[in-house]
Amino acid sequence: MMTSIPLDYYLILSAFLFVTGIIGVITRRNAIIIFMSIELMLNAVNLSMVAFSAFFGDIAGQMFVFFIMAVAAAEAAVGLAIVLALFRRKKSVYVDEVNIMKW
Questions:
Q1: What is the per-residue pLDDT across 7-21, written as a single tens digit (0 to 9) for each?
Q2: Which of 14, 35, 89, 103 could make a disulfide contact with 79, Cβ separation 3.0–4.6 Å?
Q3: What CATH number should be reported for the domain whose range is 7-97?
Q4: Residue ranges covered by each domain of the chain
């Protein structure tokens, strides 16, 4: 007999992942770690959307997840290009040491 996992468990896991991502963005100064934390937050949102979509039996949430994944892939590509450009110029990926965006 197969039992389904309650919606609460998915939402608790999603909240834990989202809070972990927020803590990573706030506390870390490495640009790569910050981008990974943002990806973690997007995946937490994806998990909750898929959980609600399965719970309510509506496929719209799962379609939104595909759009969020496309935005996350574009964000990762642009973010990696920015980090590489900053590293080539300043030889550092720490956000505190990079000040070339100032006037």
A1: 899 999 999 999 999
A2: 35
A3: 1.10.287.3510
A4: 7-97
Q: Are 37 and 28 in contact (CB under 8 A)?
A: yes
Give the separation between CA 98 and CA 102, rounded to whole angstroms. 9
Is residue 1 predicted with pLDDT exceeding 50? Answer: no
Q: Is 2 helix (H, G, I), strand (E, B) or coil?
A: coil
d(CA 51, CA 6): 9
Share of the chain above pLDDT 70, in %: 88
Contact status, residue 33 vs residue 74, Cβ threshold 8 Å: no
Can you tell me the distance from the alpha carbon of 92 to that of 75, in angstroms, rounded to the nearest whole number?
Answer: 20
Q: What are phi and psi of 94, to 5 degrees?
A: -85, 130
* Long-range contacts, stretch 40-48, CB < 8 angstroms, 24+ apart: 41/17, 42/68, 42/71, 42/72, 42/75, 43/17, 43/72, 44/14, 44/15, 44/17, 44/18, 45/14, 45/18, 47/10, 47/13, 47/14, 47/17, 48/10, 48/11, 48/14
